[in-house]
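SAMPLE LOG
Freezer: B-3
Tube label: C17
Construct: single chain, 620 aa
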Amino acid sequence: MAKGTSDKSKNRPDAGVKNRAQIPAVSAHRTATAEKPRSSRRGAVVWLYVGVFAAIFLLEFLRRPGALLYPTLYFEDGVVFYRDQLLSASISTLFRPFNGYYLLAPRLIAFLAYFLPARDVPYLFNVTGLGIGAAAAAAFCLPVFRQILKSDALRVALCILFAIAIDNTESLATTSNCFWLIGIPVILLAMLPPAAPSGAPTSPRLWHHGTFVLAGALLGLLTPLTVIVAPIAAWQIYRNRQSNRWQLPTGYLLATVVQVAVYLISAVPADQKGSSLQAVITAFLVAAAHRVVMSPILGLRPSISLMAQRVAWVPLLGLALLEGIAFYLFLRGSRLVRLKTALCLYILGANLLLSLIGKGLVPQFQQIGGDVLYGAPRYFFLSGCAFALLVALAIEQCANGLFLRSPATWSRAPWAKELTMGLLLAAIFSPGLIANFHCESGEDFHWTGYGPLIDSWKQNAARGLPAAAVVVPINLPGWALTLPGTSLTNGGFEEETLGPWAIFGAAHTIVSTAQHHGGQKSLFVAGAGGAYTDLRTGTPGRKHLVTAWARSDCSQPASGGIWIHDGSTHQASVTKQVGCAWERISLDFTSTDLHVMRIHLVNSSSSALYWDDVMVSTER
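STRUCTURE (predicted):
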């Protein structure tokens, strides 16, 4: 026993140490040396992310240099979000949905923009839009996503592909459409494999749980695309119930509940025509070939050109490529690879179906070789990202198979394997990278010249003073930021142009001298349609009386009406049959907290109709 005891003592870490008090000092030294590489690795990760972020930001700027060189607002950034904030001048705008979605990012940026001089507002919107897009696309380079794709080179290459090869022109430099890009990290985080059981679960503090749940909910409020990952989140919560990785999926589910409730409350009109099951299946296959496979690999415009030329074998080859990659991963991959493949296919298919059915795009994709309309590429962005990830998984799986066959060759230069995989992925998508890199930068509308007009309008509106209407052109051409005046102008249509009235519908609408109730001119509307204008209403709950005079052209009676709404669900309307004599039509409208009323002069018949002497009176 004595001998055995002495033998065991020789193998102890502290054997031969006379003064055992020295042991903590040695342990502390070893801990310090272990923490140094850990901190250096953390610093390397930060620099990697910053480098990829900066590269993508630069590429985005080169794609749309006008966003910073001669900045103006783009799309709904100006027409909806900045305009809504100027009209309401209230923090309540942060909680206002748009088109059935709750979009926190553009609402928050518009709220901050209200306090800036108008000349600086485009810089805030455009820099934020570029930054959010670059940050979301660069997220996949982080080491946490090695659980999805182990190769660092492939993940960095995919970050570039997400930003360029998958067409995202409509999301570039805009906060209103950046939620499509925010969907990338949201979905990737949901795709992380369940945590492996490691003994008894730890019990973090309540604030730790709350922080991660809140982070997941915040991400979900930044993008309504969390509805796609809701089933995955529920599955992740169940699988991770014994670990501490259930918090983020829980936040996703909470955000999904909010987004679905907002959609139901908003009562967005659905596609009334509907589509047959056969039409949906056809559209799914055509869109998968055209928008999910061909557009990222060949470029959007070349793929549209091939479809227009009825080159059917190219989209069929794209479908075969997608199916071949999926079968290869299922047959050759491990259980974890098959799980990741199934998740990619689910994301691809779910996003595709939601876009086709929810946005009424099914009729546009009914021929494998034929004319395919533009169809809003942003709706297919996430499906394209899922396809690119499938290609990367197949490349990594193939490379791992070659490594097992000749490990000595790859072990001498492991960097060669990484470089080869990254270059191969870039080569596959190189035509799409080149073709989709170009996008419209927009025109220089000299925003700084309109800045003082917007500032003056904002100051007068805040003080309750009269303010004239302001119309500011924004990018892309055809879009405009319209700020309504506090009083109706050109109600008699005596000006040289129709402004500030705008035309809607398919009717032929012009200023005419053939008939007039007062003055020398009136508005002539032939066919279904008419004209509309906006007014700022001020105090909510105040009643306004809108009156107008209408008559037909005497060839046959016409049906004329006034329709007023606040830009949302509150509306009022009146319709009247009018003959050959001028008749008065009037309508009451109560203003809401949206502070705007849009007045439509409507011809709901196929015959001709004249409008004149529109007036608005407000109760005191």
